Protein backbone atom coordinates (compact mmCIF):
# COMPACT_ATOMS: atom_id res chain seq x y z
CA UNK A 1 0.00 0.00 0.00
CA UNK A 2 1.28 3.46 -0.94
CA UNK A 3 0.82 5.53 2.17
CA UNK A 4 -0.24 9.14 1.63
CA UNK A 5 2.12 11.37 3.61
CA UNK A 6 1.47 15.09 3.91
CA UNK A 7 4.68 17.00 4.61
CA UNK A 8 5.28 20.60 5.72
CA UNK A 9 5.69 23.11 2.89
CA UNK A 10 9.13 23.13 1.27
CA UNK A 11 10.41 26.49 0.08
CA UNK A 12 12.42 24.70 -2.63
CA UNK A 13 9.34 23.29 -4.41
CA UNK A 14 9.17 26.25 -6.86
CA UNK A 15 12.85 25.80 -7.80
CA UNK A 16 12.33 22.04 -8.17
CA UNK A 17 9.38 22.78 -10.45
CA UNK A 18 11.46 25.19 -12.58
CA UNK A 19 14.21 22.62 -13.05
CA UNK A 20 11.72 19.87 -13.95
CA UNK A 21 9.68 22.12 -16.26
CA UNK A 22 12.85 23.09 -18.10
CA UNK A 23 13.65 19.41 -18.73
CA UNK A 24 10.06 18.70 -19.83
CA UNK A 25 10.10 21.66 -22.24
CA UNK A 26 13.36 20.34 -23.69
CA UNK A 27 11.73 16.95 -24.24
CA UNK A 28 8.49 18.29 -25.74
CA UNK A 29 9.54 21.48 -27.55
CA UNK A 30 6.91 22.79 -29.93
CA UNK A 31 4.15 20.51 -28.61
CA UNK A 32 3.86 22.60 -25.44
CA UNK A 33 1.70 25.71 -25.25
CA UNK A 34 2.51 26.21 -21.59
CA UNK A 35 3.82 24.38 -18.54
CA UNK A 36 2.43 25.23 -15.10
CA UNK A 37 3.16 24.26 -11.52
CA UNK A 38 -0.21 23.15 -10.12
CA UNK A 39 -1.46 21.29 -7.07
CA UNK A 40 -0.59 21.84 -3.43
CA UNK A 41 3.17 22.22 -3.91
CA UNK A 42 2.42 25.27 -6.08
CA UNK A 43 0.71 27.13 -3.21
CA UNK A 44 3.19 28.84 -0.87
CA UNK A 45 2.88 27.61 2.72
CA UNK A 46 0.55 24.72 1.89
CA UNK A 47 1.47 21.27 3.26
CA UNK A 48 1.38 18.62 0.54
CA UNK A 49 2.49 15.22 -0.61
CA UNK A 50 6.10 15.66 -1.71
CA UNK A 51 5.11 15.16 -5.35
CA UNK A 52 5.22 17.98 -7.88
CA UNK A 53 2.07 18.30 -9.95
CA UNK A 54 2.87 19.83 -13.32
CA UNK A 55 0.38 20.62 -16.07
CA UNK A 56 1.45 20.60 -19.71
CA UNK A 57 -1.02 22.37 -21.97
CA UNK A 58 -1.29 21.38 -25.63
CA UNK A 59 -3.40 22.90 -28.40
CA UNK A 60 -5.31 19.83 -29.61
CA UNK A 61 -6.47 16.45 -28.38
CA UNK A 62 -4.24 14.40 -30.73
CA UNK A 63 -1.26 16.15 -29.14
CA UNK A 64 -2.11 14.46 -25.82
CA UNK A 65 -0.90 11.19 -27.31
CA UNK A 66 2.09 12.87 -28.99
CA UNK A 67 3.22 14.19 -25.60
CA UNK A 68 2.61 10.82 -23.95
CA UNK A 69 4.66 9.03 -26.64
CA UNK A 70 7.60 11.42 -26.28
CA UNK A 71 7.58 11.19 -22.50
CA UNK A 72 7.31 7.38 -22.53
CA UNK A 73 10.31 7.34 -24.90
CA UNK A 74 12.14 9.34 -22.18
CA UNK A 75 11.27 6.64 -19.59
CA UNK A 76 8.23 8.36 -18.09
CA UNK A 77 5.37 6.00 -17.23
CA UNK A 78 1.90 6.53 -18.69
CA UNK A 79 -0.77 6.02 -16.04
CA UNK A 80 -4.50 6.06 -15.57
CA UNK A 81 -6.80 7.92 -15.43
CA UNK A 82 -7.29 9.20 -18.95
CA UNK A 83 -9.82 11.73 -17.74
CA UNK A 84 -10.51 13.93 -14.74
CA UNK A 85 -13.70 13.79 -12.72
CA UNK A 86 -16.43 16.12 -14.05
CA UNK A 87 -17.15 19.04 -11.75
CA UNK A 88 -20.75 20.00 -10.92
CA UNK A 89 -21.77 23.11 -12.83
CA UNK A 90 -19.09 22.72 -15.50
CA UNK A 91 -19.52 21.06 -18.91
CA UNK A 92 -20.38 17.38 -18.55
CA UNK A 93 -19.10 16.51 -22.04
CA UNK A 94 -16.23 14.01 -21.71
CA UNK A 95 -14.03 16.06 -24.05
CA UNK A 96 -13.63 18.64 -21.27
CA UNK A 97 -12.13 16.07 -18.89
CA UNK A 98 -9.73 14.13 -21.15
CA UNK A 99 -6.06 14.10 -20.15
CA UNK A 100 -2.94 12.00 -20.11
CA UNK A 101 -1.17 11.29 -16.84
CA UNK A 102 2.49 10.38 -16.57
CA UNK A 103 4.90 9.88 -13.70
CA UNK A 104 8.63 10.48 -13.58
CA UNK A 105 11.26 7.96 -14.56
CA UNK A 106 12.32 5.64 -11.75
CA UNK A 107 14.69 7.15 -9.17
CA UNK A 108 13.91 10.75 -10.18
CA UNK A 109 12.15 13.52 -8.31
CA UNK A 110 8.47 12.50 -7.85
CA UNK A 111 6.24 14.20 -10.44
CA UNK A 112 2.66 13.78 -11.59
CA UNK A 113 2.51 15.18 -15.13
CA UNK A 114 -1.01 16.11 -16.22
CA UNK A 115 -1.34 16.75 -19.96
CA UNK A 116 -4.48 18.69 -20.89
CA UNK A 117 -5.89 20.59 -23.86
CA UNK A 118 -5.97 24.41 -23.81
CA UNK A 119 -9.37 25.91 -23.08
CA UNK A 120 -10.90 22.72 -21.71
CA UNK A 121 -12.61 22.78 -18.31
CA UNK A 122 -10.00 20.55 -16.64
CA UNK A 123 -7.09 22.71 -17.86
CA UNK A 124 -8.70 25.85 -16.44
CA UNK A 125 -9.77 24.09 -13.22
CA UNK A 126 -6.19 23.28 -12.18
CA UNK A 127 -5.01 26.87 -12.70
CA UNK A 128 -8.00 28.56 -11.07
CA UNK A 129 -7.87 26.20 -8.08
CA UNK A 130 -4.17 27.02 -7.57
CA UNK A 131 -4.60 30.78 -7.94
CA UNK A 132 -7.63 30.89 -5.66
CA UNK A 133 -5.75 29.08 -2.89
CA UNK A 134 -2.77 31.39 -3.38
CA UNK A 135 -5.07 34.39 -2.90
CA UNK A 136 -7.10 32.88 -0.02
CA UNK A 137 -4.72 31.60 2.70
CA UNK A 138 -7.54 30.75 5.14
CA UNK A 139 -9.11 28.47 2.54
CA UNK A 140 -5.68 26.96 1.85
CA UNK A 141 -5.23 26.23 5.59
CA UNK A 142 -8.68 24.59 5.78
CA UNK A 143 -7.82 22.50 2.72
CA UNK A 144 -4.51 21.50 4.34
CA UNK A 145 -6.34 20.38 7.48
CA UNK A 146 -8.68 18.25 5.40
CA UNK A 147 -5.74 16.66 3.55
CA UNK A 148 -3.95 15.79 6.80
CA UNK A 149 -7.13 14.16 8.18
CA UNK A 150 -7.72 12.30 4.90
CA UNK A 151 -4.12 11.05 4.85
CA UNK A 152 -4.53 9.79 8.42
CA UNK A 153 -7.24 7.41 7.13
CA UNK A 154 -4.44 5.47 5.38
CA UNK A 155 -6.37 5.08 2.13
CA UNK A 156 -5.03 3.77 -1.16
CA UNK A 157 -4.03 6.60 -3.50
CA UNK A 158 -7.14 6.23 -5.68
CA UNK A 159 -9.46 6.28 -2.67
CA UNK A 160 -7.65 9.33 -1.27
CA UNK A 161 -8.14 11.10 -4.60
CA UNK A 162 -11.81 10.10 -4.73
CA UNK A 163 -12.31 11.50 -1.22
CA UNK A 164 -10.48 14.71 -2.09
CA UNK A 165 -12.27 15.46 -5.40
CA UNK A 166 -15.59 16.72 -3.98
CA UNK A 167 -13.72 18.84 -1.41
CA UNK A 168 -11.71 20.42 -4.22
CA UNK A 169 -14.99 21.08 -6.03
CA UNK A 170 -16.29 22.89 -2.93
CA UNK A 171 -13.22 25.14 -3.12
CA UNK A 172 -13.55 25.54 -6.86
CA UNK A 173 -17.14 26.77 -6.85
CA UNK A 174 -16.36 30.00 -4.91
CA UNK A 175 -13.17 30.25 -6.96
CA UNK A 176 -15.37 30.66 -10.06
CA UNK A 177 -17.19 33.55 -8.36
CA UNK A 178 -13.81 35.08 -7.39
CA UNK A 179 -12.57 34.74 -10.99
CA UNK A 180 -15.64 36.52 -12.33
CA UNK A 181 -15.39 39.28 -9.70
CA UNK A 182 -11.66 39.89 -10.19
CA UNK A 183 -11.38 39.32 -13.92
CA UNK A 184 -9.06 36.33 -13.46
CA UNK A 185 -8.23 34.51 -16.67
CA UNK A 186 -6.02 31.59 -17.66
Q: Could you say how many structural domains there are in total?
A: 1
Question: Alpha-carbon distance between the termini?
Answer: 37 Å
Major sheet description: 5 strands, mixed
CATH superfamily: Beta Polymerase, domain 2
Briefly note the structural class of the backbone. Answer: alpha+beta
- Main sheet: which strands, in order across? 1-2-5-4-3
Order of helices and strands: HEEHEEEHHH
> Average pLDDT across residues?
95
Runs in which pLDDT lies below 50 for 5 or more consecutive residues are none
What percent strand? 5-15%
What is the CATH topology descriptor? Beta Polymerase, domain 2
Query: Any idea what the shape is?
Result: globular
What is the CATH class?
A: Alpha Beta
The CATH architecture comes to: 2-Layer Sandwich
Number of strands: 5
Give the C-alpha Rg. 16 Å
- Helix count from the secondary structure assignment: 5
Helix content: 40-55%
Features:
186 residues; Beta Polymerase, domain 2; 5 helices; 14% strand
Give a written overview of the molecule.
The protein has 5 helices and 5 strands; from the N terminus they run αββαβββααα. With 186 residues, it is an alpha+beta fold. The protein has one domain: Beta Polymerase, domain 2, CATH 3.30.460.10. Strand 4 and strand 5 form a beta hairpin. The radius of gyration is 16 Å and the shape is globular. The chain starts with 12 loop residues before the first helix and ends with a helix.
Give the topology.
Elements lengths: L12 H16 L5 E5 L13 E7 L3 H12 L3 E3 L20 E4 L7 E7 L3 H15 L1 H16 L4 H26 L4
Parallel strand pairs: 2-5
Antiparallel strand pairs: 1-2, 3-4, 4-5
Helix pairs in contact: 3-5, 4-5
Amino acid sequence: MNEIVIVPPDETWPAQYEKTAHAIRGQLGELVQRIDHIGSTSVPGLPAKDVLDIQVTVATEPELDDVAERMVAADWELRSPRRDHPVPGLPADDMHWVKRMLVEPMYRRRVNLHVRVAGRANQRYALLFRDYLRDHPDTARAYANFKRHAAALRLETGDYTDLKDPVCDLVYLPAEEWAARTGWTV
